[in-house]
Amino acid sequence: PTTDSTAALKAQAEQYLLQAAQGHATSTGQTVRAVQQLAVTTRTYLQQPTTQQPVPPPLAVARNGRQYASGTTTVLVTADADAAQMQKDLAYSQRLEDVLPSLQITVPEIVRISYLTAVTIRTYPNMAPNDPPPDWTPPQELAYVASLPDQNPSRALVWTPIHPSIDQSERLISAVAPVYNATTFLGTVSVDVSLDRLASYLNRLIVDQTGFAFLITDTGELVAVTEDGQGGLVDELLAVDSQLMLANLNAGRSSVVTVSVRGRGYVLAYAPISGINWGLGVASPLDEITARTNDTATRIATITTQSLGFGVGLAIIAVIMFGFGMALVLRRQFVQPLTALISGTNRIAAGELQPITIASRNELGQLATSFNSMTAALKVARQETQSKEEARELAMQHLGEAVTHLEYSLAEKQALFQLLRDVSSPVIPVLKGVLVMPLIGSLDGERMEQATSVVLPRVERERAQTVLVDITGVPVMDSQAAHGLVAMIKAIQLLGAQVVLVGVAPEVAQMLTALDIDLRSIHTSADLRTAIEQLTHARRYSM
């Protein structure tokens, strides 16, 4: 019976350790997935087109010479930053000013969310401009390096190795999502997770005095352990069966084994953490698990021997009178409680976490109390895991609501953006065979492509003979827009229509003449009224 009780106690400990490792690994995996979702959501929000013209914040200069801006987020700029590129990066990330705070609070393990480019960083929570080292630049961050096209050609979300925070105050891992404009790499979204917060629950997994819990990476690197000084012991323990453990973890399998380190046996349970391929392990010395059972077995044997000797002496005098009574006493004091203890440990090993009821206060009663303490610890661990999972589910629900709200806002902005694009390049018939396309505001290559796609079908459908392209409302255009304008004019001419460029501003005229473009086939007019009058006069004259 004692051997059965020891085996049952070991089986219960193995089950407890494995369940604790699996439960907290699952909870940590939920945190990992929430962090990944935040990184992807922030990147998607940044990459969506917008009709707004964000204004970069005004920059101040700190005592160390670093340029910065501090509002809801903090902006830091490298010392040798190109002014035009810096303004472009800050304007692009300005939309994150009000978004980052609402995203960061959804997962408590997150300590910072940032958007990094080659010359700037926008980050939340705020930091002082003197917090980073004097020679610090965004490209030094592992998050930025892991997102570069040569390091991440698939543009996928990735996790960095363990690295220090920007101010060197704590160890982190970061989920990073590279941000692109078509094929151009712009920067990266980095969501930093504190290892201390991620591993804060490890102490709650310890059952025995010298037991411990730990986190390891997919390569076997020790991330966190519950007690200082146990790192060496963990390394030795992992070295005994590390290849099989890492293979199981990388394959997503949990396991529990018994290993011997420094002449002492340990029950080791481990489980994989999904999303980052790390592992969570819990170890407990085998001798501490079975100590009370062995001690009680020795005491029971001694007491039984003494009782039997006493019974034999009495039997000489009155075997029949006292023999039956002694058997009842032994059964009540030892056999029945021990049977109840074995039955209770078997039920606990099967997952029924009910306390063992033994009324006696001897060694068997103390052993039952020890079992009941371990059962209570397992119940608490289950409740904590359940509470944490419920909190994660609530956080994921809040995150889902935030993502839904962002997606709805993005859909509205896209619809508005498309509407503005449609009305920004109207084609208006003013005379038979004459179309007018007024262009207003700043022009770029993308808008010229859109205007071309609108006007060419109208020219073909209405068999237009003349198209008046009115750029009176265009104060200036870049070289890409100028080439796009000339390409549109030539395409219209290929369809058999004449093009009159109306309202050319001096700045636009200088741009067109500086581009070495053949303008001899392009007719011009000072304003739209004059162009229409010339067309009307020409028609009358031809009649």
Characterise this structure:
Helix 9 packs parallel to helix 10 (479-494). The longest helix has 64 residues, at 286-349. The model is unreliable at 303-331 (pLDDT under 50). The chain has 12 helices and 19 strands. Helices cover 51% and strands 20% of the residues. The protein has helices at 2-47, 83-93, 100-104, 142-147, 195-198, 231-250, 286-349, 363-424, 445-462, 479-494, 506-514, 528-542, and strands at 60-61, 67-70, 74-77, 110-116, 120-124, 158-159, 163-164, 171-181, 184-194, 212-216, 222-225, 255-261, 264-273, 278-285, 428-431, 434-440, 466-473, 498-502, 523-525. Strand 7 (163-164) and strand 8 (171-181) form a beta hairpin. Strands 1, 2, 3, 4, 5, 6, 7, 8 and 9 form a 9-stranded antiparallel sheet that branches. A 5-stranded antiparallel sheet has the order 11-10-14-13-12, sandwiched between helices. It has 4 domains: 2-6 and 288-388, no CATH class; 16-31 and 198-286, PAS domain (Beta-Lactamase, 2-Layer Sandwich); 49-194, 2-Layer Sandwich (Beta-Lactamase), CATH 3.30.450.20; 425-542, STAS domain (Transcription Regulator spoIIAA, 2-Layer Sandwich), CATH 3.30.750.24. It is of the alpha+beta class.
Kindly state the number of beta strands. Answer: 19
The CATH C-level class name of the largest domain: Alpha Beta
* Major sheet: 9 strands, antiparallel
CATH architecture of the largest domain: 2-Layer Sandwich
Instruction: Examine the coordinates and then state which fold CATH places here, giving the name of the CATH topology of the largest domain.
Output: Beta-Lactamase
Give the C-alpha Rg.
38 Å
* Oligomeric state of the chains in view: single chain
